[in-house]
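User: C-alpha cells for this one?
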Amino acid sequence: SLLFKDTHHVMATLRRWLVEEVVAKYGASVSEAMDITKWETVQNPPYVPRQTDNVSCGMFMMQLADDMELGRRPDFTQDDIPLLRKRAALALYKGELARTSTGPTLLSVP
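Assistant:
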C-alpha cells in the first residue's frame, strides 16, 4: 500500500511458502496442478488504495484481503482507517465478524 519495490524478494518467499502449504495440506499432486510457481505476480496494482502514513499497513492489508475474499474492488481510503480500526477492535472484542449477504467484512461491523 506504500508502493515499495520488492527489493527483499518477499514475493518469492511468499510463493515458496504457499507451495509448501498446499503440498502439506493437499499433497504434491494438487500443488503441481495449481502450478503456483507460474502464477503472475502483480505489484502495486492501480486499484489498490494507497496509504499516506507509515503506520496503517496492517489495516490496509486486512481490508484489502477482506475485499479480495469477497470479490469486491477495494473502495476505502486513508480517511477510512480510523473507522476500520474501531470496527476491527469491535469484531475482535465480540469474537465475530459481521455477516453481509456476501460474507463477513470489517466495513459492515456496526
